[in-house]
Amino acid sequence: MADKTGIDPGLGNLAEVDRLVHEPARLMILMVLYTVEFADFTFLATITKLTDGNLSSHLSKLESAGYVEIEKGYDGKKPRTRIRLTEVGRKAVDAYRTTMSQALQHLAD
Q1: Cα angle 48, 107, 6; round to 5
Q2: For position 1, what pLDDT does the model report?
Q3: For residues 47 and 38, what is the distance between their CA atoms, to the nearest angstrom?
Q4: Which residues contact 17 (CB under 8 A, 6 or more apart)?
Q5: What are the residue ranges spanned by the domains of the chain?
Q6: Where are the alpha helices (DSSP H) in the chain?
Q7: Whole-number Å distance between alpha carbons of 71 and 59
Q8: Are 39 and 32 a contacting pair, CB within 8 Å?
Q9: Assigned fold of 18-108
Q10: What is the pTM of this model?
Q11: Per-residue pLDDT, 27
């Protein structure tokens, strides 16, 4: 049911959705990280089917927002990049999920 502005309150929540999370590639990254303690760069690239450059760009944006932490190191002489979802990132995903669920629920009503 619409309010005085003509916008359904459930759909109006979509205007507040976190666009950083909503972008499909970043949403895939965050969904994977939500389910694991950490993931390495190669695993994320493989599972999301993103190129290394594209994945790196999206991870930089997520890191700048404080949604992920990136740890670079070595396994012996081989470089290793591990990524984990921060508590801020986890809350952003939870808020996104709530907003989208509410909007979809209004479609069912």
Answers
A1: 115
A2: 46
A3: 14
A4: 96, 99, 100
A5: 18-108
A6: 9-12, 19-22, 24-34, 41-48, 52-64, 87-108
A7: 12
A8: yes
A9: Arc Repressor Mutant, subunit A (1.10.10)
A10: 0.85
A11: 98
